[in-house]
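Methods: holo model generation. Sequences were used as deposited, without trimming of termini or removal of tags, and paired with ligand SMILES retrieved from the corresponding compound records. Each pair was processed once, and we did not select among multiple samples. The sequence and flavin-adenine dinucleotide SMILES for this entry were:
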Amino acid sequence: MEQFRSARPDIDDTLDLEAFEAGLNGSIVLPGTPEYAEARLVNAALHDRFPALIVRAADAADVARTVALARGSGLTLSVRGAGHSLAGYSTNDGGIVLDLGAMKGLLIDAERRLAWAQPGLTAGEYTRAAAAHGLATPFGDTASVGIGGLTLGGGIGWLVRKYGLTIDALQAVEIVTADGRLVTASEESHPDLFWAVRGGGGNFGIVTRFQFKLFPVGEILGGALFLPATPDVLRSLVPIAASAPEELSTIAFLMPIPPAPFAPAELVGTVSLVMMFVWTGDPEAGQAAIQPFREVATPLIDIAMPMPYPAIYAFTAAGEQRGLAVHRSRFLDGLDDDAIDAILAAMASPSSPVAMLQLRVLGGAMARVPADATAFAQRDAAVMALIITPFEDPSSEAVHRAWTETLHEALAARDAGVYSNFLEVEGEDRVRAAYPSGAYERLADIKRRYDPSNLFRMNQNIRPAAVG
Ligand SMILES: Cc1cc2nc3c(=O)[nH]c(=O)nc-3n(C[C@H](O)[C@H](O)[C@H](O)COP(=O)(O)OP(=O)(O)OC[C@H]3O[C@@H](n4cnc5c(N)ncnc54)[C@H](O)[C@@H]3O)c2cc1C
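and the model returned the structure below.
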């Protein structure tokens, strides 16, 4: 170990690593070691950073020790669950990364429909374990995303209309705060903190355990209708999906049809509205619920079949790949003809052949929770739009950013805010846009009480309110 230390004398001077490591139940990874090359990587390859120290925590005590180390040293602290932050906040240059990825404990009480989950779990790992009991907690659309970052931002996924956001299933968290204390936050204990962590991201501490409600989700009807990308199809998406029974949640991608065993060769590359969906209920009723889409236009490809709930993740598996991409997102209060024209024009000449626009029609259980019940306040958002522009050549980033921004601006007329988990590093105004109706100010006040020095700032940052 000594040889690696001497490679980074600056770190040795700042931190007493010997003592720190001796007190850990987990381990550390330093620059120059064989593990470092892999350990430093995050999903968003744009963020190619070189932290000075990676701590692989084994338990809450390790988390508290790392918080103390960061506080004492003044080094930047990044917290990592599964490393899917679009903004790259789960890494940094020259600071500390606290990697929770090894903390994968999961206790399921099927009878009481409750789960206790550690923050290193991915949505896929949790969902597969819960499915063995015929149960599920709503997470996002992709298996590899960490439950930590996803939950703390809100969590919008395949069950959003039936069972709401991930935070609507959250019962309690155990959290290490900036002063190193491990506290439980729930409706009864530290209710202000519990309000804040339901949407306010990693601003308030490091969650070492989540307690979630589980819902009965057995076999689903799931899959995708690949619809022709016409104005009529786009115009019908919101009215049909929003008026469908809440058993139906859709996530549609306007994108070129990828090569796949089910895609006829002549269709590969054709832009299509790939309307992916989950129906939690009787499969025949599910077929009836998606039938109106088929009546607007005959699908180019029609895959709707009964499947175990976790199998839906196969449809988004391509999204798990680490790679370069630009993202821009906003909630919309609807999709009008001007927006549809702009979308189709943009998709006709994308900067990247694999650029896509994701459209999620919301409502249902998510919208029934009062806006001020959690820090995630955008309960009445009708649609969430997310532009994803993956690319390969790092020198072409500016071109993709410009195309993405232009389409994002074209959607501004129906803007209804933004989801914090779909922000890159976009400035304070955009963070404020994620917390409307006084939510930002309430969060800033709670931040002042729990993290006055802004130790937890590698996130969509809430500035601590000024004292007085
Ligand atoms: C391919 C892809 C698909 C996605 N799909 C969805 C989706 O369907 N629905 C949705 O809602 N979101 C989705 N997201 C966004 C996702 O929720 C966020 O990127 C989330 O932050 C990822 O969590 P993570 O733990 O993997 O990320 P990390 O990068 O590890 O963490 C992100 C940030 O969360 C905070 N954090 C993480 N864990 C903890 C913890 N235990 N305690 C305190 N703070 C913590 C930290 O501030 C950290 O910087 C998607 C992202 C990607 C890349």
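The pocket of flavin-adenine dinucleotide is lined by residues 43, 78-86, 89-90, 100, 119, 140-142, 145-146, 148-150, 152-157, 201-202, 206-207, 319, 421, 458-459 (CB under 6 Å).
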